[in-house]
Automatic annotation (TrEMBL):
SUPFAM superfamilies (UniProt xref): Cysteine proteinases
InterPro entries xref list: Bac_transglu_N, Papain-like_cys_pep_sf, Transglutaminase-like
Gene source species: Novosphingobium olei
SMART domains, alphabetized: TGc
Matches recorded under Pfam families: Bact_transglu_N, Transglut_core
Residue ranges constituting the Transglutaminase-like domain according to the UniProt record: 158-222
Protein name as it appears in the record: Transglutaminase family protein
Length: 270
């Protein structure tokens, strides 16, 4: 399947910004079941300072804002060819040992609510089956609903709220998987939806390392393993490690942001 993506983020600053830096993880890489046919990132009101691969082997673009600018646009567009690998990513490039993905982060700390969730998980030797069961437990415990959490919500806080979005599902799953001794990580990317092209935001899911298979994806929000409709962009220990955009700004008291995202299947002429 070929998936065409156009993703634009537009910022308006009032008054104009003095200085700003942003770290962008918006460029997908080739991996098992995914091949980047073409990809480009365009900027208005900003310029590229550096491009590099980070410790998770994510492609990172560091940009700076033009002094005094009021409008900044970041537009990504490209085509990615995908195939259904039943969620199996296998071994992926990176510079971190597996134990790194067993360590808690501020967003994935294991507390009483995560431990209570894990206690409901039936024992068994088949770890893949247990992880599927864990995915269902998380989805049952956290109803998908906007407006209850934000980017700083921890796994414990999400379980306390009982509502959240894909980012929250991923953090709870990651915390619980680590609690049972399974390395787990966060993934940001795109999802081709069946009922629409225009979307409000990208998607997020989790991956866990399974012996004999390597890294395997779990989209808790949709209760499936990622298939050919998914485009994997970045991964890390949690959202902060794989966020599409992070940065700092100086000199603006008011900021508005508008995101436009279109994800659609590209027909291939025979």
């Amino acid at each position: 399947m070929r998936i065409a993506i156009e993703h634009t983020t537009h910022y308006h600053f009032s008054p104009g910004i003095q200085n700003g830096l942003q770290r962008l993880r918006l460029t997908p890489r080739n991996s098992q079941g995914q091949s980047v046919i073409e990809w480009a990132v365009h900027f208005e009101g900003a310029r590229v300072q550096l491009e590099y691969d980070d410790h998770n082997a994510n492609r990172v673009t560091l940009i700076s804002f033009e002094p005094g600018t009021r409008e900044v646009s970041i537009r990504c567009e490209g085509v990615v060819e995908t195939s259904d690998q039943s969620g199996i990513v296998g071994r992926t490039a990176g510079y971190l040992p597996r134990w790194h993905f067993l360590e808690p982060t501020p967003l994935t700390q294991v507390g009483p609510k995560v431990r209570a969730l894990v206690a409901r998980l039936a024992p068994g030797a088949d770890m893949l089956a247990r992880l599927h069961a864990l995915s269902d437990l998380v989805a049952d415990a956290v109803t998908y609903e906007l407006g209850h959490t934000d980017a700083a919500s921890t796994a414990e806080a999400v379980l306390a709220a009982g509502h959240g979005v894909c980012q929250d599902h991923a953090h709870v799953f990651i915390a619980a998987a680590r609690a049972i001794g399974v390395p787990a990580r966060y993934v940001s990317g795109y999802l081709l939806m069946d009922d629409r092209i225009d979307q409000d935001a990208g998607h997020a899911w989790a991956e866990a390392e399974v012996e004999g298979l390597g890294w395997v994806g779990f989209d808790i929000s949709n209760r499936i393993c990622p298939d050919a409709r998914y485009v994997r962009v970045a991964s890390g220990a949690d959202y902060r490690d794989a966020a599409p955009v992070t940065g700092i700004r100086v000199g603006s008291s008011d900021e508005t942001m508008h995101v436009r995202l279109a994800v659609q299947q590209q027909r291939v002429e025979q």
